[in-house]
Design a protein that fits this description.
Elements (H helix, E strand, L loop, with lengths): L1 H20 L4 H7 L6 H16 L12 H4 L5 H10 L14 H11 L15 H5 L1 H12 L12
Helix pairs in contact: 3-8
Length: 155
C-alpha cells in the first residue's frame, strides 16, 4: 500500500515538473518559430495589392474580411496557400477537390448562378509571390498588435 502511494506521489510530482518546465504559452513559441520576413516590405505589398479591398488597417470592408481575425488561425504555410494558390469560394460543400458536390458548386460559380470569386489568387503576380512571407510578417504583426496601422519602421 505504501509503495502504491509513493508511486502516485512520484507520478504527480513528475506531472508538476513537466508543467513547471513548460511555462511559455504555445502562442509565444509559435511567434519565435515564424519565418523571417520584413514587416515593412509586407506593409508595402499590402498597401499596393490588398488595402483597396481589406482596408488600410486590414480590418476589412464590405465584401472583404477582417484579416487581423483571420491571421490568428493561419500559420505561414496556410497563409501562403491562401494568398498564392486559391480563390475564396465561400461556403464550399466539400473540402475534397474531386467531390461531385464541389465540382457542381464550382460550375455554378463559374456560370454565376451562385457564390462568387472575390479574392484573386496571387500566384504568378511577381511582387506578391516574392514577398508573401513579408506580407505574412506584416499581417501577423498587425494581428498580434505588435504593429499598429500605418507605415511601420523601415528604410
Amino acid at each position: 500500500m505504501v509503495r502504491m502511494h509513493a508511486w502516485f506521489a512520484l507520478a504527480w510530482l513528475a506531472g508538476c515538473a513537466v508543467s513547471l518546465e513548460n511555462t511559455r504559452p504555445a502562442r509565444e513559441l509559435e511567434l519565435q518559430s515564424r519565418p523571417a520576413g520584413s514587416v515593412y516590405l509586407g506593409w508595402r505589398v499590402f498597401e499596393d495589392r490588398c488595402a483597396r479591398c481589406h482596408g488600410s488597417s486590414a480590418t476589412g470592408k464590405p465584401g472583404a474580411p477582417d484579416l487581423l481575425v483571420t491571421m490568428r488561425t493561419l500559420g505561414p504555410r496556410e497563409f501562403a496557400d491562401r494568398v498564392l494558390l486559391r480563390y475564396d469560394w465561400g461556403a464550399m460543400p466539400s473540402a475534397d477537390p474531386r467531390s461531385a458536390d464541389r465540382a457542381a458548386y464550382v460550375d455554378d460559380v463559374v456560370q454565376r448562378r451562385q457564390g462568387g470569386l472575390t479574392m484573386p489568387a496571387w500566384q504568378g503576380e511577381p511582387r506578391v509571390t516574392a514577398h508573401v512571407i513579408d506580407l505574412y510578417a506584416y499581417l501577423s504583426a498587425r494581428s498580434d498588435a505588435t504593429q499598429g496601422p500605418g507605415r511601420p519602421a523601415g528604410p
